[in-house]
Amino acid sequence: MRFGGLAISSLLLSYVLLCSCRSSNYNVDTTSGGLVDILTKPMFEKMLPNANNDSCPARGFYTYEAFIAAAKSYPAFATTGSHEVRKREVAAFFGQTSLQTAGGIGWTPSIGPYTWGYCNKKEDSPPTDYCQPNPSYPCAAGRNYCGRGPMLLSGNYNYGKFGKTIGRKNDLLQNPDLLIKNVTMAFESALWFWMTPQSPKPSPHDVMVGHWHGDEEGRYPGYGVVINIIDHEECGIGADTRVWDRIEYYQRYCDMLGVGYGKNTDCYGQSPYRD
């Protein structure tokens, strides 16, 4: 984000240093503008026209201001690379989070079916409590670590890892619903997942900005790998409607932002990652 004045520039540098552990190979391009140059409030609301629909459980929750506030903790997001790369990263982030949070009654309104992103803030009818034994991030009795927030962050280990970065590890492990009681924190959790590599997976950020160049398993840079990172069960099984929906959201946002889709947008024939 472009700021004026030495004091603000120093603050931005501090952000970069503090967040360097969240993603590899940070390269913050402060000369070509920032997130707000790509994603204005009118564009945010145009991209998510049904987020405040009466049929959406999350109506009134997600706001542009909260997203911008959360992104300040991850200054490389949408500021890395060329203007085209930065736009494509924004489209990819919202493409994935829109599918994660899609919902509502009337999925095919006159404005199109891929307009129901950000309708939910918590996974509906989770099949499990998402608790995995982990001494560093122990589960609290009776708690369910199902998906919450824009990325539907799930698993006690993810709540614990994210919580640790904001000094609230124990709070979130004891009460994971805290994540959806603070909209800025909810967006921060999604951006944390987006910016953080979890070996052997690269971060979605590194994939979209060109810091990751493929692997020996035949995975190549592009939106398809991001799908694989977020939900590997959808990949490597041929054409799949879930993957197609993720692509449709992404392409809609690319079109709105005026940027091409890039290569390798699906993961139909891609070797799936394993947890």
Please provide a written account of the structure.
By secondary structure, the protein is mostly helical. The protein has helices spanning 6-18, 35-38, 41-47, 64-71, 83-100, 156-165, 169-174, 183-195, 204-209, 223-230, 241-257.
Offer a concise description of the structure.
With 275 residues, the chain is mainly α. The protein has helices at residues 6-18, 35-38, 41-47, 64-71, 83-100, 156-165, 169-174, 183-195, 204-209, 223-230, 241-257.
Outline the secondary-structure elements.
Blueprint: H1 6-18, H2 35-38, H3 41-47, H4 64-71, H5 83-100, H6 156-165, H7 169-174, H8 183-195, H9 204-209, H10 223-230, H11 241-257
Radius of gyration: 18 Å
Q: What series of H and E elements makes up the topology?
A: HHHHHHHHHHH
Record field, number of beta strands: 0
Work out the helicity level.
Answer: 40-55%
Mean pLDDT: 88
Kindly name the structural category.
Answer: mainly alpha
Low-confidence stretches are 1-32
| Distance linking N and C termini | 35 Å
Number of helices: 11
Largest sheet: none
Strand content: under 5%
Shape: globular
